[in-house]
C-alpha cells in the first residue's frame, strides 16, 4: 500500500474533513490541485466513446466531471455519511437540481413554510409552472405534515434549524410519515452542517447544502451540494450533465479548504452564539430571542437530541417595529450588514425586507417574521466585541 492509499473507512470526522477526496497527481502535490480546464483529452476515439457512454471511468467535460469538484464531493459525502454527493453552482441550484431530477408534473411536495424566502419562491413561483403541486406546513407540527400528505406526494422538504427563527423539525417522526407516504425526505442542513447534525443518520434520504455558508466559512464563493444514495444522486448528475448548474473547480477547491476547519469553526460559532443569545435575552429593548440553545426555545430539547451544538445563527425581536429594527441595525459599527451567513465575520440583517422580502405580508405573518425581527449570524470575533457592538444598536432604539 502506498502512502496515498491510506484507508479511511474507520477514520473520524476530523480526519475525513482533511484527508477524504484527496487524489494526488504525478507531481506529488501536498495541497489539492485546481483543475481549471473545460475539457479533457482522450487516448483514442474508442476511449472517447467509452467515456461518453459511461462504459469506462474518466473525465469527460467539467460541466459534470472535474477532479477538483469530485474531491469536494467525496469529502462532503464522507462527512455526511453518504454514498455520493453532487456539487452545484449554488445552494439554490442544489435544491432546483434535486427537484427537477426527482419530481415530475403531477407530483406533490410538502414543504416547511419555515424555509429560506428564495426556497419558498422556487416552490411557489416556478415548480408550480411545471405541474408540481406544493403544500406549505409549519415545520414543528408533525400533524400538519401528516394532514398535508396526498396520494401523489413524492417529497418532504425542510430545513432544520430554520431560517431565521431556528425552529427544529422532528426528523424521526417525519421519517415515519415519509415511509407511510412512500416519499423522499429532503433536509437542508445549511445551519448545522455535518459538524453538528447528520440528517441521513436521522432518517433523511437527501441532504442539501449551500456551500456558500459554513462549508466555505469566509464568504468567498458561491456553491451548493446534494448528498445521498447513489441511485438518487445519479439522477441529479444526469440533470446536471444536461442543464449545467455546475460548481466551478476553483470554488470546489475553496470549499475543500473550508471543510478542513469546519468542526472547529462550528464549535466556536456555537459557543459565541449561545453567549450572545443569553446576553440578548437580558436586554431591555429585546422582546424575544430565537435560538434553539436557549431552554426557553420550544425546540430546545429536540435540538439537543438531533444536534451536537446549536449553531451560529440567532434572531431577536426589538421593541417597536421596522423603524426601531432599522435604527438598531444602522447603529452597529463592527458587524457586517449583509444577507450572507456562515462567515468568520458576524453579519446582521433585517429578514422582513431582505431575505424574506419577496414573500407576501400574509406569508411572513404565518412564519412569524415580524418587522421587529433582526437576524444575526455570530462570527468568530471576540464575543465581547460582538456584544459591545450590538449594544450600540440596542441603545439607539427609541433615541
Automatic annotation (TrEMBL):
InterPro entries: Cys/Met-Metab_PyrdxlP-dep_enz (IPR000277), Cys_met_metab_PP (IPR054542), O-succ-hSer_sulfhydrylase (IPR006234), PyrdxlP-dep_Trfase (IPR015424), PyrdxlP-dep_Trfase_major (IPR015421), PyrdxlP-dep_Trfase_small (IPR015422). Its EC number is 2.5.1.-. Keywords: Amino-acid biosynthesis, Methionine biosynthesis, Pyridoxal phosphate, Transferase. It holds the Pfam family Cys_Met_Meta_PP. Its cofactor is pyridoxal 5'-phosphate. One of its GO terms (cellular component) is cytoplasm. It catalyses: O-succinyl-L-homoserine + hydrogen sulfide = L-homocysteine + succinate. One of its GO terms (biological process) is 'de novo' L-methionine biosynthetic process. The modification N6-(pyridoxal phosphate)lysine is found at residue 213. Pathway: Amino-acid biosynthesis; L-methionine biosynthesis via de novo pathway; L-homocysteine from O-succinyl-L-homoserine: step 1/1. One of its GO terms (molecular function) is carbon-sulfur lyase activity. Belongs to the trans-sulfuration enzymes family. MetZ subfamily. Catalyzes the formation of L-homocysteine from O-succinyl-L-homoserine (OSHS) and hydrogen sulfide. Homotetramer. This is O-succinylhomoserine sulfhydrylase. It comes from Parahalioglobus pacificus.
Amino acid at each position: 500500500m502506498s502512502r496515498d492509499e491510506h484507508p479511511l473507512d474507520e477514520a473520524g470526522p476530523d480526519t475525513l474533513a482533511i484527508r477524504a477526496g484527496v487524489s494526488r497527481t504525478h507531481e506529488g502535490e501536498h495541497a489539492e490541485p485546481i483543475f481549471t480546464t473545460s475539457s479533457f483529452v482522450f487516448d483514442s476515439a474508442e476511449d472517447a466513446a467509452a467515456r461518453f457512454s459511461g462504459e469506462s471511468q474518466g473525465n469527460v467535460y467539467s460541466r459534470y466531471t472535474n477532479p477538483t469538484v469530485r474531491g469536494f464531493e467525496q469529502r462532503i459525502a464522507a462527512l455526511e455519511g453518504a454514498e455520493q454527493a453532487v456539487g452545484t453552482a449554488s445552494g439554490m441550484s442544489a435544491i432546483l437540481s434535486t427537484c427537477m431530477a426527482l419530481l415530475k408534473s403531477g407530483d406533490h411536495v410538502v414543504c416547511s413554510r419555515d424555509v429560506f424566502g428564495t426556497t419558498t419562491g422556487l416552490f411557489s413561483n416556478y415548480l408550480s409552472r411545471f405541474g408540481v403541486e406544493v403544500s406549505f406546513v409549519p415545520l414543528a407540527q408533525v400533524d400538519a405534515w401528516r394532514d398535508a400528505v396526498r396520494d401523489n406526494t413524492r417529497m418532504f422538504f425542510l430545513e432544520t434549524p430554520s431560517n431565521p427563527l431556528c425552529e427544529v423539525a422532528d426528523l424521526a417522526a417525519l421519517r415515519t410519515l415519509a415511509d407511510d407516504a412512500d416519499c423522499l425526505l429532503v433536509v437542508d442542513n445549511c445551519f448545522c452542517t455535518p459538524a453538528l447534525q447528520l440528517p441521513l443518520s436521522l432518517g433523511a434520504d437527501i441532504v442539501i447544502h449551500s456551500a456558500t455558508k459554513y462549508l466555505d466559512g469566509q464568504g468567498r464563493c458561491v456553491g451548493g451540494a446534494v448528498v445521498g444514495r447513489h441511485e438518487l444522486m445519479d439522477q441529479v448528475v444526469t440533470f446536471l450533465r444536461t442543464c449545467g448548474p455546475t460548481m466551478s473547480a476553483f470554488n470546489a477547491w475553496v470549499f475543500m479548504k473550508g471543510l478542513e476547519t469546519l468542526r472547529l469553526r462550528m464549535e466556536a460559532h456555537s459557543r459565541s452564539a449561545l453567549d450572545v443569545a443569553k446576553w440578548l435575552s437580558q436586554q431591555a429593548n429585546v422582546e424575544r430571542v430565537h435560538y434553539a440553545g436557549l431552554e426557553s426555545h420550544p425546540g430546545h430539547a429536540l435540538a439537543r437530541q438531533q444536534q451536537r451544538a446549536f449553531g451560529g445563527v440567532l434572531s431577536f425581536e426589538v421593541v417597536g417595529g421596522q423603524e426601531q429594527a432599522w435604527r438598531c441595525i444602522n447603529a452597529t459599527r463592527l458587524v457586517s450588514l449583509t444577507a450572507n451567513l456562515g462567515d468568520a465575520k458576524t453579519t446582521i440583517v433585517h429578514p422582513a425586507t431582505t431575505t424574506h422580502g419577496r414573500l407576501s405580508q400574509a406569508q411572513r405573518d404565518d412564519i412569524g417574521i415580524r418587522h421587529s425581527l433582526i437576524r444575526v449570524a455570530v462570527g468568530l470575533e471576540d464575543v465581547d466585541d460582538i456584544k459591545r457592538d450590538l449594544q450600540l444598536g440596542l441603545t439607539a432604539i427609541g433615541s
